[in-house]
Amino acid sequence: MISYDVIEHGKPLQVRLRETPRPQGREVLVRVTRSGICHSDLHIWDGYFDLGGGNRFYVRDRGCVPPFTVGHEPFGVVEAVGPEVTGVKVGDRRVVYPWIGCGKCAVCEAGQDNYCLAGRFIGVMSQGAYGTHLVVPDAKYLIDATGLDEAYAATLACSGLTAYSAIGKLPELAARDWVAVIGCGGLGMATIAILRARGVENIVACDVDQSKLDQAVALGARASLDTRGADAVARLKALTHDNLAGAIDLVGMPATAELAIGAFRKGGRYIMCGLYGGQITLPLPPLAQRAITVGGSYVGNLAELRELVQLAQSGKLARTPVEVRACSEINRTLDELKAGRVLGRVVIDMETAAA
Ligand SMILES: [Zn+2]
Ligand SMILES: [Zn+2]
Known about the structure:
This protein is of the alpha/beta class.
């Protein structure tokens, strides 16, 4: 098998030729056909997350040590199965759920693999999907996405699922309530599409890039806000008629957190998904007085991915922009993503892999 690996953090990925693994027990060997590139791949590539105040979380501390294959949005074809596998057969085409837990702890038993402390997340703690082959520990993590475009289906595993799970954490919305979607890259587009599919119309798209805002409005956001300028909070309050009930922050920097929390009506709920980095100072009494909730959401669980795939198959979900590129363009894509020049989502056609 071939994989495109981080050999040294921050340096171009390199092609590695490795022995194709053989599935044992309940394992399934998937030949990867499409592999989505996610913004969080950049952090793993760089080797750390910025925690603010000069503090960093190093990915090596959770076992991600080069040479390492990133990539956690896989779509592929079952190529071989272990002797104990049931439920899939060779040739089945499937989305791979990547947020795989230990399978033994309380959260895994409750179907919340994504909260497992001993997780084996694909492309994060175990070898990822920028490669031609992937071993999945159990067939239950493979989801039938018949009827969906494979490149688009791949993006549901992370960007779609992250958006879907975050939306599930919003407060109950009344007809006059508004939701802010902060950051209109691939994740923001997925969030707007899912909100619309669930009947939410009062969506305000927030970004610093006018072309992304235009794209968000075209996808169904009712209003848009260029968040640059000192009066952004006041403009957001005015746009939402003082009825901002929820915000999904897909950027996750001090300015975006302060924007949402500052603009909420009473009872507003802030949901942090973005991992850009930094820290904020939060005066505590207003949290109680304004009944504000500050929370986080990290990817989603297996049941949520199944629901999301069904929603996409129902035809109610507007397709977010996906651009398919060849393997030879992985490094260029990472550079462009880092520079903020990617509109929507890039998915790599792993069938173009060449040693
Ligand atoms: Zn991701
Ligand atoms: Zn577990």
